[in-house]
Amino acid sequence: MTENLHRNQASENATGAARYAPAGGGKLIVLTAPLTESIDHAGFFIQMALASIPQWLEFVLDKKYPKWREVERNEDGTARYMPAGVRVLEKSLLREYTADEVVACFPDDLDKFIGPNTRVVAVSTHNPLGVTFAAGVYTSIYGSSKEPLNSIYSRAMFDKIKSSPYSKNFQVIVGGSGGWQITQTNTFAELGVDCVAEGRSESADSLALFQKAIAGEALPREINLAHPTSRDAILFPDKRTTFGVVEMTTGCGRRCQFCVPDLNPQIDMPKARIMDAVRANVRQGNKLISLATEDMFIWGQVHTDTPFFFPNREALVDLYTEIVNTPGVEQHLLSHCTMAPFVVDPELIRQLSEVLLPKSPIHLPRLSTHPQKKALVPLIGLETGSVRMARQIMPSKGVPFSIEDWPSIVLEGLRVANQNNWFPMMTLMIGNPGETDQDTRETLDLVYEMDRRGLFAFLVPSIFTPLHDTRMEHQTGVTRTRQLSPLQWQLMMKCWKHNLRPGQYSWWGPMAWRAGSLFMWLYRLRKLNGPNFTWPLMMFAGVAPERILQGIGKIHVGKPLVAKSRRELIASLRPNYLKHLRADNGDLPERPSRSVDGLPGQSPMNFVTDARSLKVLP
Ligand code: B12
Ligand code: SF4
């Protein structure tokens, strides 16, 4: 390595800065991530809030979580926990460099590690500028600035790196799923970033990039790093990660047009390696584990003889049981999944609830029937209630069922979910390219139908964001909240009204919301969001019954939906899918009168009835 040579250069370049030199001259490679993406002690939701609210509302977080900025450090000042992306990158670099050359620290501690010896400062980031979905939208509703808190803290971190007295000696490489935001906004110079790397750090290209930076060679502004194509090539960190994140799968397979993670190969990680990473987290003091995935239900069913959208019940229950029973794991949080598996295998959901509820840190006293009022809150994409729009942007979202049945899949899946104390956080996209008022009306119909049936999910609407590299990258929909139509605003506000339902049992709850929202409207929001916002806000505030607001033509009250039951959805399946359904869930069709697709006529005996007929666990 050319390290010594460069250390000499460093001392020349940094003469004026020598007095700031950290002990030992600093580290060759310093890894970091924004504080707002590294904290984990206040729970998943604080990070989501940080990604969505403007700076002037920071006091709310400070009040609720007065210690949210306090993070834990190891004795040497390095970070005790870091986002999983930093940890995998660290592990990847440790294949080539020594533990003394690579360090991962919080932004506040950068001065302790960046010194004359430093050649690379590598930043991992999820959402540095807050331009992704469900982030910018809420700041633009509530704030004069469009920047969410997350972006303010990321910019402060970049400023700190840029203003380092040793900045001439090192190059700044940014990676992680939010790197594209820097490329797309062309903020390289402003943030002091030399290179944005897209892709995984395990690849040979990634090591070559670091070698180049260490050799002092100019880096490309943008580079694509290959994604491993096999499960064995994925590295698992043996250090503690933020939220105890351990990778479970990559890719998805449902091929939604707007989705970034779906562009990655569909891989499910070996159980043994997941468990090693779980134990490593626990050893280092983490009590919380969460498996990172786009759809937890594909795990154990990737590249098998069964299509991935028929979950491998035994494998999943076994994996989660072992995780939550690992000594030291006190809490477990779900990340992402999809809706159709709730309809495909309700018994899987029941069994997972038994395993997972006792370790869930989430309590929803108004909703849960669990003795301790625990609940499971996975993230699920609802996106739209319009079949026309769903067909266009996510034709396979509901497989094995047809996308024509999307509203029924959502209602039936949510019924199964709620029955088992799962209250998902469901994202919706408003202002998709080509979205008509009729599409918005149909989404409103679905949300009203949820209410009518007493179903509950936390509905998180956001404005369509064309994410880089996706199949919709070059399409534009609504780009600013002021462009939203009255119906789109109504959908946004109806979702939030629905979300407040469980909080409205007290006599004072609805009154407080009414008064608060009217005050906010008078004080700030009517100017910010324009006239289309007025009546949706009045509906949200409950100034008059919705029927009256509809009568005077100001809102659309959702029509009752006739939805298919589980039995009817199953009856509509392609016949060759029926063999993958489990008989213990019921609702299977009786023996069809004739054979289809050359298969013998099905009777319930032909369906999978017990674990012995299933594949070997991964
Ligand atoms: C767990 C998770 C969360 C958790 C925890 C996040 C955390 N800080 O640890 C929570 C729930 C809090 C969360 C919140 C949000 N999330 Co999130 N989250 C994930 C999830 C499921 C896993 C992330 C992960 O740890 N993966 C495992 C690690 C190993 O992967 P990685 O970080 O990508 O790192 C690899 C490479 O990127 C690369 N790499 C990483 N860093 C670096 C650095 C360098 C220098 C190099 C060379 C390479 C490199 O190497 C690593 C592997 O080798 C992903 C989906 C996914 N499967 O990735 C979504 C995802 C990243 N989240 C997303 C979003 C939108 C958000 C929110 C904005 C949502 C919201 N509106 O609230 C917030 C933002 C939070 C914030 N503070 O700003 C999107 C990002 C979309 C995008 N591309 O912009 C994703 C992709 C989900 C999706 N389906 O679209 N999230
Ligand atoms: S279901 Fe979710 S993860 Fe899968 S392709 Fe669609 S949006 Fe992406």
Account of the protein in words:
This protein has 618 residues and is of the alpha/beta class. Helices cover 35% and strands 10% of the residues. It has 23 helices and 15 strands. The chain has helices at residues 3-13, 35-38, 44-50, 58-64, 84-93, 110-113, 136-142, 149-162, 180-185, 188-191, 204-214, 271-283, 313-324, 340-344, 346-356, 387-393, 406-419, 437-452, 486-499, 508-529, 534-541, 546-551, 566-571, and strands spanning 29-32, 102-104, 120-124, 171-175, 195-199, 222-225, 245-247, 249-250, 267-268, 288-292, 331-333, 336-337, 379-383, 425-430, 458-463. The strands form 4 sheets. Strands 2-1-3-4-5-6 form a 6-stranded parallel β-sheet. It has a 4-stranded parallel β-sheet with strand order 12-13-14-15. Helix 13 runs parallel beside helix 15 (346-356) and helix 20 runs antiparallel to helix 21 (534-541). The longest helix is centred in the last third of the chain and has 22 residues, at 508-529. Mean pLDDT is 85; it is low at 1-19 and 593-618. The structure holds cobalamin (B12) and iron/sulfur cluster. Cobalamin binds at residues 36-37, 44, 47-48, 50-52, 83-85, 88-89, 122, 124, 126-127, 132, 134-135, 150, 173-178, 197, 200-202, 206, 242-243, 245, 247, 260-261, 292, 294, 335-336, 467.
